[in-house]
# Entry
Amino acid sequence: MNTINLRQVGRLGALLILLAGAAAASDASAHAVQISGKHTQAEIKKACDDVNGVPVSGEGGKGCFNQNKNTMVACSKDGDCTGFVPD
# Structure
């Protein structure tokens, strides 16, 4: 499993990776879904591992791209998470 470290690719690269992940969530478009509660880094990692997702991380937090469902979850350092799902 590959991990994308957003710090290594820079801010522009990080934005492109996140946008590509969100765009890949659907041929046409995707929409954001707020995920309730606060989630720890360990919970995010476990959920990503459970779906064989691609972990993403950076200065702003962590997330996961699920290649099987073309969905993405992005979480802040505070544990607030947003999902991106196909329309």
About this structure: The chain has two helices and six strands.
